[in-house]
Automatic annotation (TrEMBL):
Domain Flagellar hook protein FlgE/F/G-like D1, first and last residues per copy: 114-172
Taxonomic lineage of the native organism: Bacteria, Bacillati, Bacillota, Bacilli, Bacillales
Keywords for this protein: Bacterial flagellum, Cell projection, Cilium, Flagellum
Major place of residence: other
Location of the Flagellar basal-body/hook protein C-terminal domain: 223-267
Record family assignment: Belongs to the flagella basal body rod proteins family.
Gene Ontology cellular component annotations, sorted alphabetically: bacterial-type flagellum basal body
Protein name as annotated: Flagellar basal-body rod protein FlgF
NCBIfam families: FlgEFG_subfam
Length: 273
């Protein structure tokens, strides 16, 4: 009976974690460049039960009864790097990254493109949020004030918001001078990137992601005056949240049934004995 308690409790924890993940996706449905998290429920390894015949001579023999499930858990969260819709904002500092033809990696998973962002002076992060701005010194930055880097790893000084970004990322300031080319990098395995908040992603391996600029196998465009919307499907997310809620309730009722059975076993059966 206690095994049933553990199984129902594991189901409740898994559904609660799933609900939290879906709630975070829904809360960021309007966050530019946000990539929805996804995960699946997996079961712990089953146990094979045997009945031991203690009367057997000269040794004991066992008879298989069947398998016993040991609960479920929420598999590791993984972002869905599918391209989000582009929406025109008519804001010169909004620059959407439109992915074109991308090759697949050895696992058959499509690669993904990102901007390079200066996190600290010696740290690099990656982002798909092109909702940029210009700081007081005229540098192109994220909304949180982190610098956008060019192909040489340098900050891009545009002076003011009257700059032009070509589809290949070359930036021209108001005076007509080229001030840099926005760097776009490619992740062969996007699952090696983890979220850190503020739309930033950290590469978990050594080194940095390679640049996709001038890579003949990769095509992309930078669209100035556009933002990439979140790829969260609000309707589908709401449906999945209701499903998770119902599954949590079902496990809760199972847990209550086991609790009532244990109460009778302790208070009533024990009294009869």
């Amino acid at each position: 009976m206690l095994r049933g308690l553990y199984g129902a409790a594991a189901g409740m924890v898994a559904q609660q974690n799933r609900q939290e993940m879906l709630s975070n996706n829904l809360a960021n449905a309007n966050t530019p460049g946000f990539k929805a998290d996804q995960a699946s429920l997996r079961s712990f390894p089953n146990m094979l039960l045997h009945a031991v015949d203690t009367q057997a001579m000269p040794g004991r023999r066992s008879y298989p009864i069947g398998e016993l499930t040991t609960g479920v858990y929420l598999q590791e969260r993984m972002p869905n790097f599918k391209q989000g819709d582009l929406v025109e904002s008519r804001n010169a500092t909004d620059i959407a990254l439109l992915q074109g033809v991308l090759p697949e990696n050895e696992d058959g998973r499509e690669m993904a493109l990102f901007y390079t962002i200066e996190h600290n002076e010696d740290e690099i992060r990656y982002s798909r949020n092109g909702n940029f701005t210009v700081d007081g010194e005229g540098f192109l930055t994220t909304a949180q004030g982190r610098y956008v880097l060019d192909v040489d790893g340098e900050r891009i000084q545009v002076d003011n918001e009257n700059f032009i970004v070509a589809p290949n990322g070359i930036v021209t300031n108001e005076a007509g001078a080229q001030v840099g080319q926005i760097n776009v990098v490619v992740a062969e395995d996007p699952m090696l990137l983890v979220k850190e908040g503020d739309g930033l992603l950290r590469f978990t391996e050594e080194g940095e992601l390679p640049s996709a600029v001038d890579d003949g196998e990769i095509t992309y465009q930078l669209q100035q005056g556009f933002v990439e919307r979140s790829n969260v499907d609000a309707g589908q997310t709401m449906t999945e949240m209701m499903t998770a809620y119902r599954a949590f309730e079902a496990n809760q009722r199972v847990l209550q049934a086991y609790d009532q059975s244990l109460e009778k076993a302790v208070n009533e059966v024990g009294r009869i004995g």
